[in-house]
Amino acid sequence: MNDLDDEQRALIPHSLRELTLHCIYKGLQLGSTVTLLTALPYQLYKSKKNPSLIPILSRVGRATIFGAGTGVVLSVALMHAKLYKEQYNEYKIWDRAYRLRYSQNQNRVDKFTFLSSIAGGLTGLLIGLPSKMSPLSAGKGALIGIPFGLLAHVLIKPLQQPPIDK
Questions:
Q1: Which of 105, 70, 88 has its CA nearest to residue 15?
Q2: Alpha-carbon gap, residue 126 to 159, rounded angstroms
């Protein structure tokens, strides 16, 4: 099956755009998580004589900005490389976008990371990374918050329906 009918097109009219947005979001998640896991221990080690939390988090936040940007670029580049290899098959793009849109697990992890990034952004805005009420502080806080949403998604088991006995 390689052709889309009108009903499928109506379900997801812009499948390549949806797939690209998904890859951007996953790049943000991966880049900020990897950067937090590497930059935070380094900054804690580097600042062991003067362990002040706000400057450490500010430096880690700056690193997560670069890490998230790198993650986005690599994620989108890998997506286009895979699509190029498949000759930008319209049905395969649509199928992947459909599966991503209706995946309960995917939607759950996106909700967790979105909520944790909002919480991190508000926290960064209030405590000041580097200054209070700065948009840069909110961005740093939001990117630092994303890995905690991923962690919460893994640790908190989804409420599953009980098995149906036959």
A1: 88
A2: 33
| Rounded-to-integer distance, Cα 121 and Cα 118, Å | 5
Q: Please report which residue ranges of 86-134 form alpha helices under DSSP H.
A: 90-101, 104-127
Q: What is the DSSP letter of 165?
A: P
Q: pTM of the predicted model, to two decimals?
A: 0.83
d(CA 113, CA 75): 17
**13-35: pLDDT as tens digits:** 888 999 999 999 999 999 999 99
Instruction: Provide the residue type at 33 as one letter.
Output: T
Instruction: Work out the burial of residue 142: count CB atoms within 10 Å of its CB; fewer than 13 is exposed, 13-18 middle, 19 or more buried.
Output: buried
Classify the phi-psi angles of 52: left when phi > 0, otherwise alpha if psi is within -120 to 50, otherwise beta.
Answer: beta
Neighbours of 83 (CB within 10 A): 17
Q: How many CA atoms lie within 13 Å of 51's alpha carbon, on the beta-carbon side? A: 6
Q: How many CA atoms lie within 13 A of 29 on its CB side?
A: 20
